[in-house]
Design a protein that fits this description.
- With about 200 residues, the protein is mostly helical.
- It has a single domain, classed as Up-down Bundle (Cytochrome Bc1 Complex, Chain C).
- About 65% of the residues lie in helices and about 0% in strands.
- The chain is built from ten helices and no strands.
- The protein is flat and about 45 Å long.
- It starts with about 25 loop residues before the first helix and ends with a helix.
- The model has no long low-confidence stretch (mean pLDDT about 80).
């Protein structure tokens, strides 16, 4: 028998959680926040880094510079997060890409190889055995490119002749500038309120 509300009996409403949707997450904001953290921590690390003595420099940053290991780890993980979130963001908004012009689409997709180059050059700049080996392998692979191999190697790496000087310059200046140039029309439209993503910041810290 149905009882009116004045009798104190209320209908029971089943409270079911909303289904999780990966598209509902603002991956672009996560990627942008990771980029900010990566750039700021990279400035701190870069001011203490010396490409002439890479292994000694990274070791000194970890052991002697106050919070040096923290900022190196922060720079590493925030950069990894930036690549991860950027890939998901690009996949999630792919169906909206028809609103972009061909030039805008090329610029945005061009950010992914630039991010990979930044991560790879940062890996080489560690200066340890694995980083040095990665640089030599990359130099050897580039040399195998017909006609342009030597030119590209002299332009970007040349580890065996110039050490890490060119790698450092491209990591700190060239690739960062190209990345911001390709993504500028996209970045200037959006703003991120850090207080809305405290959990993400805490995870990176």
């Amino acid at each position: 028998m149905w009882l009116p509300p004045e009798h104190g009996v209320r209908p029971v409403v089943a409270m079911t959680p909303a289904p999780f949707s990966w598209k509902a997450i603002n991956w672009g904001a996560w990627a942008l926040l990771s980029l900010y953290v990566s750039l700021l921590s990279g400035i701190v690390v870069g001011l203490q880094y010396d490409y002439m003595t890479p292994f000694y420099s990274t070791t000194a940053i970890d052991l002697l510079v106050p919070y040096g290991r923290f900022f190196r780890s922060l720079h590493f993980f925030s950069s990894q997060f930036f690549l991860f979130f950027s890939c998901i963001h690009l996949t999630a908004v792919y169906w909206k890409s028809e609103k972009l012009s061909y030039r805008e689409w090329i610029q945005l997709t061009g950010t992914l190889p630039l991010i990979l180059l930044l991560l790879f050059t940062g890996y080489i700049l560690r200066g340890d055995n694995t980083g040095s080996s990665a640089g030599m392998i990359a130099e050897s692979i580039i040399h195998e490119i017909p006609f342009l191999g030597s030119i590209l190697n002299d332009l970007f790496f040349s580890v065996s002749d110039s050490g890490l000087r060119k790698v450092y310059v491209h990591h700190v200046i060239t690739f960062d500038f190209l990345l911001l140039l390709c993504a500028w029309n996209h970045l200037r439209i959006y703003r991120v309120n850090i207080s809305d993503y405290r959990s993400l910041v805490a995870a990176m810290l």
